[in-house]
Design goal:
This protein is an alpha+beta fold. It contains four helices and 14 strands.
Length: 307
């Protein structure tokens, strides 16, 4: 064998004898070069493919970034508007609570704070796909929106509670004697006076309002008619039971228009001013009792707008 040839694998010839295939070394070297070149070509193709894919992915990410930034800006604008709306709700609730004398809501409670932001799979994915600044903006927006959701839930419960309190207050106000039963001149006030018939000092448990006979008399609060008939001293007397410990008396009526057990609302007609019972002229004796104790009716007059 000379140096220009090289053994390859043996093959069997006739008679079972081994024979060797001899090839020139130049062909063998050429095959190796071709193989190595082919491997380099494959590697170069793979690298080029990966590069192309990365460039496409990068371009796609840039496009998605632009779209996300636009969406993010829109949601930030909506979030800012929502925050202003929530603050306006806080102000409105504060005013309503102040108007009705309800307890104010603590400012710190309204912040409905929680612990630090939780890291979840979505945040991790976003962080890997987009740049840190966009991710931080998105995370901050998420935290802000979650807070607004908690504040909205809190305000829903707070408004429901406030509404129940207001209904209760309005019901009590409707049943609290707070207006005069008729127009006219107050001829005798609440407290010690000289009795107009007995001409001696006596305590007057109500007020007297003088006017013409048949002047209409109205209920001063919502209630139930407890008494409507003649009573010595008071003459024709109507007594209304209002609840919350209140009752009102309307004495010396010319006539009454209600019956015991009937419901009357504030402003409903209950009778007419007159001269029945012990009187020196046409008037109504109006009396308020709280827990069965007489109180000055003039101290119970409130602005009608409150009702």
């Amino acid at each position: 064998m000379n140096r220009t040839t090289i053994f390859f694998s043996p093959i069997k010839g006739k008679g079972g004898q081994k024979r060797y295939l001899l090839l020139p070394s130049t062909i063998w070297l050429f095959g190796i070069v071709i193989s190595i070149s082919f491997l380099f070509a494959i590697n170069a193709f793979v690298d080029l493919s990966q590069y192309t894919f990365n460039r496409i992915s990068y371009a796609h990410s840039l496009l998605k970034n632009r779209e996300l930034k636009a969406d993010l800006k829109m949601f930030q604008t909506l979030s800012n508007q929502t925050e202003r709306d929530v603050r306006n709700l806080f102000t409105f609730e504060d005013r309503v609570r102040l108007y009705y004398g309800l307890e104010a809501v603590n400012t710190d409670i309204r912040e409905v704070g929680i612990g630090g932001p939780e890291t979840d799979a979505l945040n991790t994915t976003v962080a890997t796909l987009f740049n840190d600044r966009l991710h931080n903006n998105l995370e901050n927006l998420q935290i802000k929106i979650e807070k607004q959701i908690r504040q909205a839930d809190f305000e829903t419960e707070s408004f429901a509670s406030m509404f129940e309190e207001i209904v209760s207050i309005k019901k009590k106000l409707r049943r609290t004697p707070s207006i005069l039963p008729t127009f006219g001149r107050i001829t005798s006030g609440f407290g010690i006076r000289i009795h107009p018939i007995e001409h001696q000092e006596a305590y007057h448990w109500g007020i007297d309002i003088a006017n013409r006979i048949w002047t209409p008399l109205y209920a001063t609060a919502d209630g139930i008619v407890e008494f409507a008939e003649y009573s010595s001293g008071f003459g024709n007397l109507v007594i209304l039971k209002h609840g919350f410990g209140y009752s009102t008396f309307y004495g010396h009526l010319q006539s009454f228009t209600v019956n015991p057990g009937a419901f009357v609302a504030r402003g409903d007609l209950v009778g007419f001013l007159g001269t029945s019972g012990r009187t020196t002229g046409p008037h109504v004796h109006y009396e308020i009792r709280r827990n069965n104790k007489p109180i000055d009716p003039l101290e119970s007059i409130y602005p009608v707008a409150m009702f």
